[in-house]
Amino acid sequence: xxxxxxxxxxxxxxxxxxxxxxxxxxxxxxxxxxxxxxxxxxxxxxxxxxxxxxxxxxxxxxxxxxxxxxxxxxxxxxxxxxxxxxxxxxxxxxxxxxxxxxxxxxxxxxxxxxxxxxxxxxxxxxxxxxxxxxxxxxxxxxxxxxxxxxxxxxxxxxxxxxxxxxxxxxxxxxxxxxxxxxxxxxxxxxxxxxxxxxxxxxxxxxxxxxxxxxxxxxxxxxxxxxxxxx
Length: 230
Known about the structure:
By secondary structure, the protein is α+β, with helices and mostly antiparallel strands.
Protein backbone atom coordinates (compact mmCIF):
# COMPACT_ATOMS: atom_id res chain seq x y z
CA UNK A 1 0.00 0.00 0.00
CA UNK A 2 1.28 3.47 -0.86
CA UNK A 3 -0.29 5.21 2.11
CA UNK A 4 -0.97 2.65 4.87
CA UNK A 5 -0.18 -0.78 6.22
CA UNK A 6 -3.75 -1.22 7.48
CA UNK A 7 -6.16 -3.69 5.91
CA UNK A 8 -9.93 -3.31 6.31
CA UNK A 9 -11.85 -6.49 7.11
CA UNK A 10 -14.69 -7.40 4.77
CA UNK A 11 -16.79 -8.33 7.77
CA UNK A 12 -20.32 -7.34 8.66
CA UNK A 13 -21.40 -6.53 12.21
CA UNK A 14 -23.74 -8.69 14.28
CA UNK A 15 -26.37 -5.96 13.91
CA UNK A 16 -26.09 -5.83 10.11
CA UNK A 17 -29.75 -6.75 9.52
CA UNK A 18 -30.81 -3.65 11.48
CA UNK A 19 -28.74 -1.22 9.41
CA UNK A 20 -30.60 1.49 7.52
CA UNK A 21 -29.29 4.39 5.46
CA UNK A 22 -29.52 7.83 7.00
CA UNK A 23 -27.83 9.90 4.31
CA UNK A 24 -27.82 7.83 1.11
CA UNK A 25 -31.62 7.95 0.95
CA UNK A 26 -33.87 8.67 -2.04
CA UNK A 27 -34.56 12.31 -1.15
CA UNK A 28 -30.83 13.11 -0.92
CA UNK A 29 -29.93 11.14 -4.03
CA UNK A 30 -32.59 13.01 -6.05
CA UNK A 31 -30.88 16.31 -5.18
CA UNK A 32 -27.39 15.23 -6.33
CA UNK A 33 -25.94 17.46 -9.04
CA UNK A 34 -22.21 17.45 -8.34
CA UNK A 35 -19.83 14.51 -8.09
CA UNK A 36 -18.41 15.74 -4.78
CA UNK A 37 -21.81 15.30 -3.15
CA UNK A 38 -21.62 11.53 -3.64
CA UNK A 39 -18.47 11.02 -1.60
CA UNK A 40 -19.69 13.47 1.04
CA UNK A 41 -22.88 11.43 1.56
CA UNK A 42 -20.87 8.20 1.63
CA UNK A 43 -18.47 9.55 4.28
CA UNK A 44 -21.38 10.80 6.40
CA UNK A 45 -22.94 7.34 6.16
CA UNK A 46 -19.70 5.72 7.32
CA UNK A 47 -19.43 8.11 10.27
CA UNK A 48 -23.07 7.59 11.26
CA UNK A 49 -22.73 3.80 11.04
CA UNK A 50 -19.66 3.79 13.27
CA UNK A 51 -21.40 6.00 15.83
CA UNK A 52 -24.36 3.60 15.95
CA UNK A 53 -22.34 0.42 16.37
CA UNK A 54 -22.16 -0.74 12.76
CA UNK A 55 -19.13 -1.48 10.53
CA UNK A 56 -18.16 0.47 7.44
CA UNK A 57 -18.54 -2.80 5.58
CA UNK A 58 -22.21 -2.89 6.60
CA UNK A 59 -22.66 0.36 4.72
CA UNK A 60 -20.61 -0.75 1.73
CA UNK A 61 -22.46 -4.08 1.42
CA UNK A 62 -25.77 -2.22 1.23
CA UNK A 63 -24.35 0.36 -1.18
CA UNK A 64 -23.34 -2.37 -3.61
CA UNK A 65 -26.44 -4.47 -3.08
CA UNK A 66 -28.82 -1.60 -3.73
CA UNK A 67 -26.71 -0.11 -6.54
CA UNK A 68 -26.51 3.22 -4.71
CA UNK A 69 -23.44 4.47 -6.60
CA UNK A 70 -25.08 3.76 -9.95
CA UNK A 71 -28.19 5.69 -8.89
CA UNK A 72 -26.05 8.63 -7.74
CA UNK A 73 -23.88 8.54 -10.87
CA UNK A 74 -26.93 8.64 -13.14
CA UNK A 75 -28.00 11.94 -11.57
CA UNK A 76 -24.87 13.69 -12.90
CA UNK A 77 -24.54 15.52 -16.20
CA UNK A 78 -21.72 14.59 -18.57
CA UNK A 79 -19.29 17.14 -17.15
CA UNK A 80 -19.85 15.95 -13.59
CA UNK A 81 -19.63 12.31 -14.68
CA UNK A 82 -16.17 13.05 -16.04
CA UNK A 83 -15.26 14.73 -12.75
CA UNK A 84 -16.53 11.65 -10.89
CA UNK A 85 -14.64 9.17 -13.09
CA UNK A 86 -11.29 10.90 -12.91
CA UNK A 87 -11.32 12.66 -9.53
CA UNK A 88 -13.98 11.40 -7.14
CA UNK A 89 -13.96 7.69 -8.02
CA UNK A 90 -10.28 7.20 -6.97
CA UNK A 91 -11.11 8.78 -3.60
CA UNK A 92 -14.07 6.44 -3.11
CA UNK A 93 -11.93 3.49 -4.16
CA UNK A 94 -9.30 4.38 -1.55
CA UNK A 95 -11.80 4.30 1.33
CA UNK A 96 -13.67 1.18 0.21
CA UNK A 97 -10.96 -1.44 -0.11
CA UNK A 98 -11.76 -4.53 1.89
CA UNK A 99 -9.94 -7.81 2.42
CA UNK A 100 -11.17 -11.30 3.31
CA UNK A 101 -11.33 -11.32 7.18
CA UNK A 102 -9.15 -14.42 7.67
CA UNK A 103 -6.38 -12.77 5.63
CA UNK A 104 -6.39 -9.73 7.94
CA UNK A 105 -6.43 -11.97 11.04
CA UNK A 106 -3.47 -13.97 9.69
CA UNK A 107 -1.54 -10.78 8.97
CA UNK A 108 -2.15 -9.49 12.50
CA UNK A 109 -1.16 -12.84 14.05
CA UNK A 110 2.07 -13.03 12.03
CA UNK A 111 2.94 -9.47 13.08
CA UNK A 112 2.41 -10.32 16.75
CA UNK A 113 4.63 -13.41 16.37
CA UNK A 114 7.26 -11.32 14.55
CA UNK A 115 7.13 -13.63 11.57
CA UNK A 116 6.61 -10.83 9.04
CA UNK A 117 7.97 -7.32 8.77
CA UNK A 118 6.64 -4.30 6.87
CA UNK A 119 8.93 -1.74 5.27
CA UNK A 120 7.79 1.65 4.05
CA UNK A 121 9.98 1.81 0.99
CA UNK A 122 9.98 1.82 -2.81
CA UNK A 123 11.30 -0.94 -5.05
CA UNK A 124 13.94 0.31 -7.50
CA UNK A 125 15.47 -2.69 -9.24
CA UNK A 126 15.43 -6.49 -9.10
CA UNK A 127 18.54 -8.50 -9.96
CA UNK A 128 19.59 -12.14 -9.78
CA UNK A 129 21.80 -13.05 -6.82
CA UNK A 130 23.29 -16.56 -7.17
CA UNK A 131 20.19 -18.77 -7.07
CA UNK A 132 18.01 -16.09 -5.51
CA UNK A 133 16.68 -12.60 -6.19
CA UNK A 134 17.90 -9.29 -4.82
CA UNK A 135 15.58 -6.31 -4.45
CA UNK A 136 17.12 -2.85 -4.06
CA UNK A 137 14.99 -0.08 -2.57
CA UNK A 138 15.05 3.71 -2.53
CA UNK A 139 16.21 3.67 1.12
CA UNK A 140 19.22 1.53 0.15
CA UNK A 141 17.77 -1.66 1.59
CA UNK A 142 18.90 -4.83 -0.15
CA UNK A 143 16.42 -7.67 0.29
CA UNK A 144 17.41 -11.17 -0.82
CA UNK A 145 14.60 -13.62 -1.38
CA UNK A 146 13.41 -16.79 -3.09
CA UNK A 147 10.09 -15.36 -4.24
CA UNK A 148 9.14 -11.79 -5.17
CA UNK A 149 5.50 -10.86 -5.80
CA UNK A 150 4.35 -7.58 -7.27
CA UNK A 151 0.90 -6.58 -5.98
CA UNK A 152 0.97 -2.94 -7.02
CA UNK A 153 -2.19 -1.34 -8.36
CA UNK A 154 -2.97 0.02 -11.84
CA UNK A 155 -0.29 2.08 -13.58
CA UNK A 156 -1.14 5.57 -14.83
CA UNK A 157 -1.82 5.63 -18.56
CA UNK A 158 0.57 8.57 -18.78
CA UNK A 159 3.42 6.42 -17.42
CA UNK A 160 2.90 3.47 -19.78
CA UNK A 161 5.30 3.78 -22.72
CA UNK A 162 6.96 0.47 -23.51
CA UNK A 163 5.40 -2.04 -21.09
CA UNK A 164 2.29 -2.66 -23.19
CA UNK A 165 2.64 -1.86 -26.90
CA UNK A 166 -1.14 -1.59 -27.31
CA UNK A 167 -1.35 1.53 -25.10
CA UNK A 168 1.19 3.71 -27.01
CA UNK A 169 -0.51 2.69 -30.27
CA UNK A 170 -3.85 3.97 -28.91
CA UNK A 171 -2.21 7.25 -27.87
CA UNK A 172 -1.10 7.78 -31.46
CA UNK A 173 -4.66 7.73 -32.77
CA UNK A 174 -6.45 9.64 -29.99
CA UNK A 175 -5.85 12.37 -27.44
CA UNK A 176 -8.77 11.29 -25.26
CA UNK A 177 -6.85 10.12 -22.20
CA UNK A 178 -5.44 11.26 -18.87
CA UNK A 179 -3.70 9.55 -15.96
CA UNK A 180 -6.84 7.59 -15.00
CA UNK A 181 -7.24 6.07 -18.46
CA UNK A 182 -8.78 6.65 -21.86
CA UNK A 183 -12.04 8.61 -22.11
CA UNK A 184 -14.59 6.89 -24.36
CA UNK A 185 -18.22 8.03 -24.70
CA UNK A 186 -21.19 6.57 -22.82
CA UNK A 187 -21.16 3.55 -25.15
CA UNK A 188 -17.44 3.00 -24.47
CA UNK A 189 -16.47 4.03 -27.99
CA UNK A 190 -13.13 5.81 -28.02
CA UNK A 191 -12.98 6.57 -31.73
CA UNK A 192 -15.20 5.47 -34.60
CA UNK A 193 -15.30 1.67 -34.51
CA UNK A 194 -12.90 1.43 -31.55
CA UNK A 195 -14.38 0.39 -28.19
CA UNK A 196 -12.76 0.08 -24.77
CA UNK A 197 -15.16 -1.57 -22.28
CA UNK A 198 -12.42 -2.69 -19.90
CA UNK A 199 -9.85 -1.40 -17.43
CA UNK A 200 -8.10 0.92 -19.91
CA UNK A 201 -11.15 3.22 -19.73
CA UNK A 202 -11.29 5.57 -16.78
CA UNK A 203 -15.06 5.24 -16.62
CA UNK A 204 -15.37 1.46 -16.98
CA UNK A 205 -16.64 0.83 -13.42
CA UNK A 206 -18.16 3.89 -11.70
CA UNK A 207 -20.40 1.73 -9.48
CA UNK A 208 -17.40 -0.15 -7.96
CA UNK A 209 -18.77 -3.55 -8.92
CA UNK A 210 -16.50 -6.57 -9.32
CA UNK A 211 -14.26 -6.02 -12.34
CA UNK A 212 -15.52 -9.01 -14.34
CA UNK A 213 -19.14 -7.97 -13.74
CA UNK A 214 -18.47 -4.39 -14.83
CA UNK A 215 -16.62 -5.44 -18.00
CA UNK A 216 -19.35 -7.94 -18.89
CA UNK A 217 -22.06 -5.28 -18.58
CA UNK A 218 -19.97 -2.81 -20.58
CA UNK A 219 -19.35 -5.39 -23.31
CA UNK A 220 -23.09 -6.02 -23.58
CA UNK A 221 -23.61 -2.29 -24.03
CA UNK A 222 -20.90 -2.19 -26.70
CA UNK A 223 -22.43 -5.16 -28.54
CA UNK A 224 -25.85 -3.51 -28.53
CA UNK A 225 -24.37 -0.25 -29.83
CA UNK A 226 -22.53 -2.05 -32.65
CA UNK A 227 -25.70 -3.93 -33.60
CA UNK A 228 -27.77 -0.71 -33.69
CA UNK A 229 -25.27 0.86 -36.07
CA UNK A 230 -24.96 -2.00 -38.54
